[in-house]
Amino acid sequence: TWLNKGKIKIKINKSSHCTDVFCCVIFIIVILGYIALGTVAWLHGDPRKVIYPTDSYGQFCGQKGTPNAKKSILFYFNILKCANPAVLINLQCPTTQMCVSKCPDRFATYTDMQLQYQITAAPWEYYRLFCKPGFNNPTKVLLRDEDCPSMIVPSRPFLQRCFPDFITLNGTLTVAKRTHFKDALDKARSLVDAKEVGMKIVEDYAASWNWILIGLVIALVVSLIFILLLRFTAGLLLWFTIIAVILVIAYGIWHCYLEFSLLRQQPGADVTIVDIGFQTDVTVYLHLSQTWLIFLIALCTIEASILIILIFLRKRVWIAIALLREGSKAVSYIMSTLFYPIITFLLLAICISYFSVTSVFLASSGDAIYKVMAAEPNCMYANTTCDPETFNKTNVSKTCPGAQCTFAFYGGETPYHRYLFILQLSNLLIFLWLVNFIIALGQCTLAGAFASYYWARRKPQDIPTCPLFSSFSRAIRYHTGSLAFGALILALVQMARVILEYLDSKLKGASNVAARFLLCCLKCCFWCLERFIKFMNRNAYIMIAIYGKCFCTSARDAFCLLMRNVVRVAVLDRVTDFLLFLGKVLIAGSVGVIAFFFFTHKIPIVQEDVPTLHYYWVPLLTVIFGSYLIAHGFFSVYAMCVDTLFLCFCEDLERNDGSPEKPFLMSAELHSILRKTEHH
């Protein structure tokens, strides 16, 4: 596409041929293979194995049409065995598990039940609900066969599993105020604490989800208003943002100092966070002076950093504001670009959903595998594969008294099952490739639309019709291979980082210091490499959108162009990112303040509508994080616009000199301000 400007022809995108065709063909083949992989996983997998809990006989709990249809909860005979490190190897608790309709609501032991059975049968009728089906011998003394649990405790269902209803009294883990678990069961304590927090968080989300959505809608509206105001009051609004962030942080410093000074004079407030350890009630930490001291130091550091940046880069801030003002004009002329992140979000949602479903079906592929669960630690048949139908006829039960053949996991010995791990890795790699391709497509599309704005002499008359749709069509039709090539490079680096993280988790606690140090260095190097490739890919996609060349040529041209203008890059790139970051912080922070006053009952008008919560910070953090993501989605369009205009500006300066024969296509304001970077 060429725009005629009198005697001058300005090339926007020479899209007469496809680029990186070979990579495009490979990309299409991989997508077809990915569809085939999902189909095979769907044929072999069974998501019920993930959705429904499975008892010791491999039967699903709560599945319709089975004997356990009305028994949707999994009950563990001895849940404390789940804290055994062997669970990480066998992926199954070494205790009998069965499906029940409800969890126990009282404390009872098998011995006490036998004593009461001599008087009345009522205790046994309740206790037998948690014994193996068909067992009806309450006088049996030996429980080596685990026909019944040795005791039942009050429990509550969580994730369709019965967990003891533990409470903490004076630092001691207690059940039903009768059974005390001391230091020997600290692992169980942490497990139950995590379960308790998880249940309360889920309950808070269920009670406040509608208010969270309202907060996110408010963030969406505020973001749109902020962007529209940038078109007319960019300088004023950005300086207001800077001053507002500084004042908000200053207020936070003052508030933290008051809390710290007040708590420092109170007895017991000098206890450190390490001393009290993990607490399910987060408000406990707010009564410690050390907590507010940490907040105070963090806010002072952030405030000082912002002030130093503004003092030493005050002139650069003016230049960055001018570039953002020019970007706001481009966005106002092509308003459809503001809604393109919705398309990217939908494509990413489809990709993530397909990846998740494929992962679940792959993980649930295979038949039920049963292993010997030995009651004695020295049993030679422990963890060996067994058949529950013929188990009683073997010598295992004689050699290892009390041993049982219980369900362990799903697997198989076919070639498909042997290569399941490789298929999961392939699923992850293709997923990363597709995600990076979707992001690359969005960047190239936006760059093409904003480039058409820059190279138009008369704005908006010379801007092509439907610039966003035209740019999207060019990117899909001609540059799919180039975008896939760049996305593949980034996906391979990200895959390497995933593998390194996996190795790091395996080496935790290892005594080999050299291996840990080498792994840490590799993680750092690959992190830096990923950041560099993202930066180069972004600029390469802009050059692809402008000139329509292949990926390698565009990446080389972008790198050389940036190196020839390294001073301008250093001045504008980080400063504009800094200003946009402050805008995102202001939007997220303002919505977060409103949410804080709402969930803490400090807004009198709506006090009666506030839901009762265990932790008010659960919806609060969700609203703040969601607001930041929404603002980031809109501001990412601005960031892409600024980067595109900057590369076009550098290209304009090199190809034109401002003469009538070679006039600049940038605006007079942008030219006069950006040229100042040469003198600073």
Helix content: 55-70%
Strands, count? 14
Structural class: mainly alpha
> Residue ranges: pLDDT <50 for 5 or more in a row?
1-12, 179-185
- Give the termini distance in whole angstroms: 37 Å
User: What integer is the average pLDDT?
Assistant: 79
Radius of gyration: 32 Å
Silhouette = globular
Strand order, biggest sheet? 9-10-11
The largest sheet, given as strand count, sense and whether it forms a barrel, is: 3 strands, antiparallel
Quick summary of this structure?
The chain has 680 residues and is mostly helical.
Overview features:
single chain, 20 helices, mainly alpha, 3-stranded antiparallel β-sheet, disordered N terminus, 680 residues
Care to describe what's here?
By secondary structure, the protein is mainly α. The protein has helices at 21-44, 48-51, 87-90, 110-117, 122-127, 186-264, 273-276, 289-312, 314-333, 340-363, 396-399, 415-418, 420-454, 467-478, 480-507, 513-547, 551-564, 566-599, 617-655, 668-674; strands at 2-5, 8-11, 73-76, 97-100, 108-109, 151-152, 155-158, 161-164, 166-169, 172-175, 179-181, 367-373, 385-386, 404-411. The protein has a 3-stranded antiparallel sheet, covered by helices on one side. Strands 13-12-14 form a 3-stranded antiparallel sheet, with no helix packed on it. Helix 1 (21-44) packs across helix 15 (480-507), helix 6 packs across helix 8 (289-312) and helix 6 packs across helix 18. The radius of gyration is 32 Å and the shape is globular. The two termini are 37 Å apart. The model is unreliable at 1-12 and 179-185 (pLDDT under 50).
